[in-house]
């Protein structure tokens, strides 16, 4: 598959991060298109799917629960089972978890874990963070071209980003190599103080058994161009991709190899 792979950026009622997600996908050479819920029937023709952030269906019941049963997800689930790549970001991560695609240890649409209300104080978080690759790069197709222990800047912007599961299911996540990214400090060190939301295992991202689905809670696309950086040097090109673009370049590279 070429770098011009057709990628659908899905929009549910309440999605609000589709444009910057579409732009960074285009910047890394992908033929990305924004696909609204009214166009669900067109999704079968795409090679991969990106579920961006927002508040799909107003996060009713819990974040991701309703869109996980939207007709668009029928195509995503079918595609994922056939090996298509799926990337969920923030609300998109919540949706793919609620759909059972990650960690993928149970039946489809029967989630075994949740990205739930932040802790210890249950309020919305907007904070610059770093996420660190916690698996061997080749464990997940989307991360395969990243270096070991890759560190990616992003923005945590969510009210429900704390991974929660039973002790049994948390063991399944760790033993099965599903913990794809953890929160880290800028120097790459990892400890509890780097976790902004009380997430179990310090989890910032999950992958499935097959490694073709990746869900990450922070937004790398909000740190994907020089103009996103408060410490940007005056002489740098403000529209040049940088920072969080690393993940999208890896996504594009994975589609080349698919």
Task: Produce a short descriptive summary.
It contains five helices and eleven strands.
Structure description:
The strands form 2 sheets. The chain has a 9-stranded mixed sheet, sandwiched between helices. The protein is globular. The chain is built from 5 helices and 11 strands, in the order βαββαβαββββαβββα. With 258 residues, it is of the alpha/beta class. It has helices at residues 18-27, 71-81, 91-98, 167-175, 245-257, and strands at residues 6-11, 31-36, 48-51, 85-89, 114-116, 125-133, 151-158, 162-164, 179-184, 203-207, 213-216. β10 and β11 form a beta hairpin. The model has no long low-confidence stretch (mean pLDDT 95). It has one domain (6-257): Rossmann fold (3-Layer(aba) Sandwich), CATH 3.40.50.880.
CATH class: Alpha Beta
Oligomer: single chain
Q: Measure the end-to-end span.
A: 6 Å
Total tally of structural domains: 1
CATH superfamily: Class I glutamine amidotransferase (GATase) domain
Number of DSSP strand runs: 11
Helix-strand sequence: EHEEHEHEEEEHEEEH
* Rg (C-alpha, Å): 17 Å
Percent strand equals 15-25%
Largest sheet: 9 strands, mixed
